[in-house]
Amino acid sequence: MEALSDSISRGAYALTDAVNELAGLGKVKLHFVSKSWVDVDDYPSYKQAQKILLRSLIAPKDGFISRVFNRKVSVRITRFLAPTNITPNQITFFSLLTAVAAAVSFALSHPLLGGLLAQFTSILDGVDGEIARLKFLRSNFGEIFDSILDRYADFFIVIGMVYAWYCASGRVAALLVGAAALTGIPLSMLFKEKFRNVFGQPFLPEKHDGILRFLPANRDGRLFIVMLGGIFNLLPAALILLAAISQLQALCRLYRVRRFN
């Protein structure tokens, strides 16, 4: 209030003038924004600032499915949840429960519901990170918690699909394909983490994968395949595709990483 009174006495009536005076006294720090600056002093500018802020939450490492489909829904959920006290870890746990519900739906021969729930799991996987970035709630534990629960979620979904296929056909092939999918799916994240630890740099699919970056082998792509398999009731085809692309991605990455030695 004193700074505001002083600036008014000098004929400077803007709030910025008072802030500048405090900055000159070393009581506040200024951070200059070179772009995307919006003065929020009316409702249209508030909506514009909100749009810019939500757009900034989209991670540059997003896969194609996440960028084109998932984020269009996840940012809306984030906008709705932002004023609440819901934490990123709670959203991560709810995403796991959604995956369990998808697995149960598959196992009970409701592939359409299972596929849609699997895709919703993928969308929620983006919401927890968006909330963490928006509200400055990122933590080392949260990152590990998210990674571990995602692996559990993938496991449950695949098990539900395999169970449905095996019960319907009684074929051992269902178990073999399921085993191939379950061993291949975690390798995508495992490889990225190991690459970062060994070489001291993040693994960027668009840089390191070459043409294989177009494979829908990352989590957003895999769960999109699961959704399609559920919608069209083609669980065997979806599982075979999941097993093939996850194993192919892991082996090709292992081959290509030799040049970093």
Structural overview:
The protein is an all-alpha fold and 261 residues long. It has a single domain, classed as Four Helix Bundle (Hemerythrin (Met), subunit A). It is built from twelve helices and no strands. The chain has helices at 2-9, 15-24, 43-56, 64-81, 88-107, 111-134, 140-169, 172-184, 187-199, 205-208, 219-231, 235-256. The relative contact order is 0.10.
Layout: helices, strands, pairs:
Elements: H1 2-9, H2 15-24, H3 43-56, H4 64-81, H5 88-107, H6 111-134, H7 140-169, H8 172-184, H9 187-199, H10 205-208, H11 219-231, H12 235-256
Helix pairs in contact: 1-2, 4-6, 5-6, 5-7, 6-7, 6-11, 7-8, 8-12, 11-12
Overall CATH architecture? Up-down Bundle
What integer value in Å does the Rg equal? 24 Å
Which runs of at least 5 residues are low in confidence (pLDDT < 50)? none
The total count of strands amounts to 0
Query: What structural class results from the helix and strand content?
Result: mainly alpha
Largest sheet: none
- Write the CATH homologous superfamily: CDP-alcohol phosphotransferase transmembrane (TM) domain
- Percent helix range: over 70%
Beta-strand content bin: under 5%
Gross geometry: elongated
Spell out the helices and strands N to C. Answer: HHHHHHHHHHHH
